[in-house]
Specification:
single chain; 88 residues; mainly alpha; 3 helices; 85% helix; 0% strand; elongated
């Protein structure tokens, strides 16, 4: 008898809720990707500070953009968690 893999067992366990499980995983990965963006924005802000940029509008826009990505990340995390709870 062939030994079953973990993914095979999980998909069988998920049964008819496979789409919820898959959606949960995809949204979780997108949430992780969105959580990296603020760090990249901070790097650009530091770069501009060191370059002598004194345009406060630039910095305000970057901080707002970081907040938007934080909200996106939290939303994706919340929906992913909800889908995984429905799947189980």
């Amino acid at each position: 008898m062939k030994k079953r893999g973990l993914l095979s067992w999980v998909l069988e366990f998920a049964g008819r809720k496979k789409t919820y499980f898959g959606g949960s995983v995809i949204l979780a990965m997108l949430g992780v990707a969105a959580s990296f963006v603020p760090y990249l924005i901070i790097a650009k802000i530091v770069e501009q500070l060191l370059a002598g940029n004194t345009d406060w509008d630039y910095y305000l826009k970057q901080v707002i953009l970081m907040g938007v990505f934080w909200i996106i990340r939290m939303t994706l995390h919340s929906v992913s968690t909800s889908l995984s709870h429905v799947a189980t």
